[in-house]
Write a structure and sequence with these properties.
Layout: E1 4-11, E2 18-26, E3 33-41, E4 52-56, H1 58-74, E5 82-87, H2 95-98, H3 113-131, E6 141-146, H4 148-159, E7 166-170, H5 176-191, E8 197-204, H6 211-225, E9 230-237, H7 246-258
Parallel strand pairs: 4-5, 4-6, 6-7, 7-8, 8-9
Antiparallel strand pairs: 1-2, 2-3, 3-5
Helix pairs in contact: 1-7, 4-5
């Protein structure tokens, strides 16, 4: 059964223009309670539907993403979105399970991204849309993540386009399970002649495991499809390592997918 517990609601001292709330929400179809770090920008109002960024590894990145989003708003680049950071709180972290696709030879405890996206589509998104004034269309929703979270954001483009119309994949673990995400993209291309999405795919030039090259290759593959409605930016950020990519990548990614065109 789904549940909601309001844990706190107060102005946050972090350098972001807005307030933070912390909630808990149960997955309906499997045993997991998620901690949701929700950021509401000062410019949010019930009178206007807001874009929502669904951020993976929310325990780690919600404050940073909120700070970047409101800085971009102050510059006039974007309207700051609601940020819903999906995390685990003080429970065991299950990102390996939730953010990775099934593939050959993967270890136990990985590869259940289908169930995780089921939670987002059937539990989390309806809960957010009921609780706040949101743009309840794919164009009004962004999935965003780093590393395995980046892989999960990319995966959503091909498996949940009817729910999420924007994705930001940062240092995405495209190498996982023998680069199975390339197979997912190819399968999508066989059945679809368009991909209506804004997509930012970023990596650091100093990434390990060949991620910079894989990121470029994945972007080139998507560009070769010539989807009429795909707004794609592939970005290799000089001097950035896997662990240092998030701030610069999040800034560029949010600007790309949320900037008025």
């Amino acid at each position: 059964m789904r549940c909601l517990t309001l844990l706190s609601l107060a102005a946050c001292a972090a350098p972001a223009d807005g307030t933070f709330e912390v909630h808990e929400l149960d997955a309906t179809d499997y045993k997991q309670t998620y901690t949701l770090n929700v950021f509401l920008p000062d410019t949010y109002t019930d009178a206007e539907p807001a874009t929502v960024v669904y951020l993976f590894d929310g325990d780690q990145w919600t404050d940073t993403a909120a700070q970047i989003a409101t800085a971009l708003e102050r510059e006039g680049t974007i309207d700051a979105p609601i940020v819903v950071g999906i995390g685990y709180g003080d429970r065991p972290n299950k990102r390996n399970r939730d953010y990775t696709p099934h593939g050959k030879g993967i270890p136990d405890g990985f590869g259940e991204i289908d169930a995780f996206y089921g939670f987002m589509e059937h539990d989390l998104v309806p809960w957010v849309d009921e609780g706040w004034s949101t743009d309840a269309t794919p164009a009004g929703r962004v999935v965003m993540g780093h590393s395995f979270g980046g892989e999960a954001a990319v995966w959503g483009l091909f498996h949940a386009p009817e729910t999420f119309g924007n994705a930001i994949g940062l240092s995405s673990s495209l190498v996982f399970a023998d680069a199975v995400i390339f197979d997912d993209e190819a399968a999508f291309a066989l059945e679809n002649d368009d991909l209506d999405a804004r997509f930012y795919l970023g990596a650091g030039s100093q990434e390990g495991y060949g991620l910079a090259g894989l990121t470029e290759a994945f972007g080139e593959t998507l560009a070769s499809r010539e989807y009429p409605s795909l707004d794609l930016k592939t970005d290799i950020i000089r001097g950035r390592f896997h662990a240092s990519l998030f701030p610069a990548g999040a800034e560029a990614g949010l600007a790309h997918v949320l900037e008025e065109k």
